[in-house]
Amino acid sequence: MITFLGCLGLLVAAYFTYGRYLERLCGVDAARPVPSATSFDGVDYIPMPMWRTFLIQLLNIAGLGPIFGAVLGAAYGPVAFLWITFGGIFMGAAHDFIAGIVSLRSNGASLPETVGTYLGPGIKQLMRIFSVGLMVLVGAVFLSQPASLIANRIEAPALSGIAFGSFSWLLLIILGVILIYYIVATLLPVDKIIGRIYPVFGCALLFMALGILAVLLFSGKYTIPEFTSLENCIADPERFPILPMLFTTIACGAISGFHATQSPLMARCLRSERQARPVFYGAMISESIIALIWAAIAMAFWNGASGLNAAIAEYGGQAAVMVDVIARTTLGEVLAGLVIFGVVACAITSGDTAFRSARLIVADFMGLEQRSLRKRIYISIPLFAAGLVIIFCLPFEAMWSYFAWMNQTLAMVTLWMITAYLNKRGRNRCVGLLPALVMTYVCMSYVFISPLMCGMRDRAAAYLLGGALTLAILITMIFKMRRDAKSIS
């Protein structure tokens, strides 16, 4: 309990300390014009109250990650608490905040455009393709998983027993309903659906986390393990080493590149730069707190990491089922239903904004204005078609694994962009550089270690190769930043 409470206190304190430092570092100015005022279009550029943009941002970035990822990542043991806490404070929240500031000062530009400004046109073109691919993959994951959760809850034999390939008719019907919602939410102005229902879902997400927190603190039934060492408690530590596998299993909740693609959505809706810290830094800290709570209850509910590993094996790694079991047992049937509703809402609200972000990224690099519904439809149809192809052609495990690596690779690139941004302005570039080095090593070593990628058995060679690629990227960035410094002087 001491480790958990200490980490919780650090996360809360960071908002008022490190968050304020980042405000000063970036020179936040309430008098500076914002995109919602200078580029108002009634579709994507619309000023909204801060409490609304905060809840929308929280729902945009949350998804299944801080719940499913935290439950599965807790299998590594209490070391997961440290990654969530320090990753969230110094990496994830700083990443989200500064990426949001950069977009805010670039007229709400999408991530590939801001990356191109500070890392060059070649990286911009690569990031356009990579970002759209990730957004479609995220949309596919967050379309299939809530549909599966709802279908499992309904359990209608008359429909579920009739199969179309590996998909029951019940599942196909639910997929269709969610897809229709995604299409409508992607095409309509941001304040029509997203601006109205997301705050409700955001409150549900926070209520769900507070309910689990109350169980942990006041029920007296559960003991949260303490951090005593860096021991890897996962069932197969040789195959799944802490570095890099924990760092990709728990992404949302610590750091996630997907967040930087969502920040431009709210950068176009803020009324003042002063709202950036609560909306960007504050939403990420809130997500880290949610992940910390779910990691704690996962270990406490099954009496430690070893019991959690046994439960993961028993349930075949189905985090959704495990969350349902925890909720039913700790909160009762009625409140458990609200928890599952919150989980489904997290997935759906990240899925629709993923497709919306993909539309905006494509519109930015094609130079297409988005006031016209016809042009929004032209861009959106291929994106939804690609998402459906992924759902029907890739198993969930493969989708999630590729999403995990692409997600953290995007975070890596964003951190290098942040480093270049700070360097160009003569500010403390270590704020971006140190996290960038960590995430570069995580992503590069993951390529050689992950069973779904190279899967090298020689761990020493895999880590050396990851280190060599990290060093090469660092040297490249040092030369670039020196050139930038000379051009400024």
Task: Write up what this structure looks like.
There is one protein chain. This protein is an all-alpha fold. It has helices at residues 2-16, 18-26, 35-38, 50-62, 65-73, 79-104, 111-119, 121-154, 157-160, 169-187, 194-218, 242-249, 257-267, 276-301, 305-314, 319-366, 373-393, 396-424, 430-449, 459-488; strands at residues 163-164, 167-168. α11 packs across α14.
The strands making up the biggest β-sheet line up spatially as 1-2
User: β content, as a range?
Assistant: under 5%
Structural class from helices and strands?
mainly alpha
Q: Compute the gyration radius: what is it?
A: 21 Å
What would the average pLDDT be, to the nearest integer?
85
How far is the first residue's CA from the last residue's CA? 53 Å
Helix content: over 70%
Oligomer: single chain
Q: What is the string of helix and strand elements?
A: HHHHHHHHHEEHHHHHHHHHHH
Report the sheet with the most strands, covering strand number, pairing sense and barrel closure. Answer: 2 strands, antiparallel
How would the global form be characterised?
A: globular
Sequence stretches where pLDDT stays below 50 over 5 or more residues: 156-165
Number of helices: 20
* Total beta strands: 2
List the helices and strands and how they pair.
Elements: H1 2-16, H2 18-26, H3 35-38, H4 50-62, H5 65-73, H6 79-104, H7 111-119, H8 121-154, H9 157-160, E1 163-164, E2 167-168, H10 169-187, H11 194-218, H12 242-249, H13 257-267, H14 276-301, H15 305-314, H16 319-366, H17 373-393, H18 396-424, H19 430-449, H20 459-488
